[in-house]
Amino acid sequence: MNILDDYYNQIDEDGRLTSRHGQVEYLTTMKYIHEYLQGDTNKQILEIGAGTGRYSIALAREGYSVTAVELIEHNIDVLTGKLTGEEDIAVWQGNALDLSFLEDSSYDLTLVLGPMYHLFTKEDKIQALSEAVRVTKPGGYLMVAYCMNEATILQYVFGKNKLREVLDSHLITEDWHCVSEPKEIFDLIRTEEIEELNSMFDVEHIKLIATDGPAHYMRNVIDAMDEETFDQWMNYHFSTCERQDLVGASNHTLDILRKR
Q1: Sign of the CA dihedral with 17 first, then 5, 188, and 156 last
Q2: Interval 144-162: pLDDT, tens
Q3: 216-243, pLDDT tens digit by residue?
């Protein structure tokens, strides 16, 4: 908790999603959110781990009723500071592992776009997913974001010449899986681990999306693009982000599930 507080007190979370390369993740996530909402503003949305409200506020301003749950007080202060009072949004401070203040089967769409980044045991991941499934209506959808292992191996371990450092610190297994600990802030996962988690719940797996694809590998190129070129980049990205041969190398993925 203190490590996360310190981290989010220091970073510009809004800036991460509004930079040009950061927009790839945001625009892709919103594309799929809109696809499953189908413009029906009667649908109830829950965002668990709402951060500073980038998604929750945007959806509330589109006319949806949104419940935003966030753990970090600083993020809540930023989120509520953006509200005009016209949005249909309820903001709660809460932990993804215990949503007992929310009723069963209440939401048509449940977004879990941050908590899985910071849960380091299989038991905690299962508990967070269990709570998210519990509060989702039968037939409703869940969208769960993950940070992927291979992007860190490629960009950090080799790209930033950190191999010796991580080997000496025993932060990589023999099969090149990063050893994630709370002090590292982010938990890193592989596609087969996501599949294993999903198998424990009565859900239908719909899609696993590469929400930013190679955007972080090419951040300097993408940040320098003019508007027309960036639009074409997004067209390319949307045409490839569901290709399962590319998903595992994305920095972030979005897992889409339907509660049976």
Answers
A1: positive
A2: 999 999 999 999 999 999 9
A3: 999 999 999 999 999 999 999 999 999 9
Phi and psi at residue 48, to the nearest 5°: -95, 120
When divided into structural domains, the chain yields a total of 1
CATH of the domain at 130: 3.40.50.150
Range of the domain at 123: 2-259
Of 133, 13, 113, 31, the residue nearest 69 (C-alpha) = 113
For the stretch 24-49, pLDDT in tens is 999 999 999 999 999 999 999 999 99
Structure letter (DSSP) for residue 189:
B
CB 20 within 8 A of CB 225: yes
| 175/205 Cα distance (integer angstroms) | 27
Question: CA 156 → CA 8, 149, 165, distances in Å?
Answer: 21, 11, 11
pLDDT digits (tens, 9 = 90+) for 46-84: 999 999 999 999 999 999 999 999 999 999 999 999 999
Look-up: residue for tokens 């969208």?
Answer: 143
Alpha-helix runs per DSSP H in the chain? 2-10, 13-18, 20-37, 54-61, 73-82, 122-135, 149-152, 163-168, 191-198, 219-223, 227-240, 244-247
Tokens matching residue 82: 């953006």
Write out the two tokens for 147: 């940070």
Q: pLDDT (tens digit, 9 = 90+) per residue, 71-130? A: 999 999 999 999 999 999 999 999 999 999 999 999 999 999 999 999 999 999 999 999
Handedness of CA 38, 40, 46, 51 (dihedral sign): positive
